[in-house]
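Let us work through a complete example step by step.
Step 1: write down the sequence.
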Amino acid sequence: MTDTRTTVVVITHNRRPELLRTLDRLAELPERPEVIVTDNASTDGTASAVARHHPRVRLLRPGRNLGAVGRNLAVRHVRTPYVAFCDDDSWWAPGSLAGAADLLDRYPAVGTVTARILVEPDGTEDPIVEELRDSPVPRPDWLPGPALGSFLAAATVLRTDAFRAAGGFHPRLWLGGEEELLAADLAADGWWLTYADHLTIHHHPSTVRDATLRRAHGIRNTLWFTWLRRPAGPALRRTLHLARTVPRDTASLRAFAEATTALPWVLRERRVLPPEVEARLRSLEPAQRDSTARSYTG
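Step 2: predict the structure and record it as tokens.
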């Protein structure tokens, strides 16, 4: 069942055991996809381990931690029409890459396909799945699944050309909710984002992560996206909502401080979304306010 339509891109940093497990699972897929790994300056022997255990994997070593921009670097080397992202602690289920490529083949206006996420070792659905399945974003009748306002990079297959045309991940956002800006720009370029319940990716959350730093980056990046793309009224409402609901702690204060300090470049790059894309985002606001999976309170 070799399928040459999709390349898998993985970014990693100091998670050698998790990455090797992911590469083992990807090597077992019937699609036998090409795999590109960007090693974001790991110091735990990741690069040598990949070269030894998975010599067919293309390994990129930029020499510094690029965060999500490591995906941009990898996509420069992609020659297939579709690119699938996964993290070093997640892997695609057999047949799901081919299933996503079938959808993208069949629906030329779809730019991204996001899969159902099962959390290992128990195989339970990630809480975000219910929100994806019940997305309130208005959808055209022809769309094969729920319309989304954003996507999860670790569980999504995209059109390679659409990713490149939209500019990939913004270099300033690094990691933590970095998908929201790219998703909005893809929608502004005319692409639809959808969820496919019959496709699956497995996520075995790594214990090697700084949850507090990731939360701070998530708050900061949400503010930057809001100020970069939303009209003044919605941007103000979203900012005030975050200010009211995030924890009163050092991480939140740092996030707001970093976001505010960056206002000069944010204003230089500000480009308000087309009305039809803004309408999709407004339809998500009630769900975002009530969401536990998307909150920054933990």
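Step 3: interpret the result. The first strand starts at residue 6 and ends at 12.
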